[in-house]
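Sequence design from tokenized structure. All designs in this work follow the same two-part layout: the structure record, then the generated sequence. An example of the structure record is given first.
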């Protein structure tokens, strides 16, 4: 019989569409990820979307995805696509270029 349960770490690769560039989406995502204790990265895509990877406890990653559905105040989100992947051991959270 197992005593206690290991926290399940997950990885979500997320693409956010809408008015998401030029509205502090990346900076706000960094702040939100730090508050949630989620690792990964965020960057502007060449197609006008924002792309992000969130890795950490399932509940925290799900909370980040929920946050992406509204984003910072000036953003207007039209779609959020999520692909679940095997965790790669991300550390920290950064803006990629």
């Amino acid at each position: 019989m197992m005593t206690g349960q290991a926290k399940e770490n997950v990885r979500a690769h997320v693409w956010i569409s809408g008015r998401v560039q030029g509205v502090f989406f990346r900076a706000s995502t960094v702040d939100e990820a730090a508050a949630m204790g989620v690792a990964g990265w965020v960057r502007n895509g060449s197609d006008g979307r924002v792309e992000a990877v969130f890795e950490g406890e399932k509940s925290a990653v799900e909370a980040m995805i929920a946050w992406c559905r509204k984003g910072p105040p000036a953003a207007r989100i039209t779609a959020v696509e999520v692909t679940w992947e095997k965790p790669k051991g991300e550390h920290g959270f950064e803006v990629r270029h």
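Strands lie at 9-19, 39-44, 50-57, 76-85, 93-95. We note this feature because it recurs in several other targets discussed in the main text.
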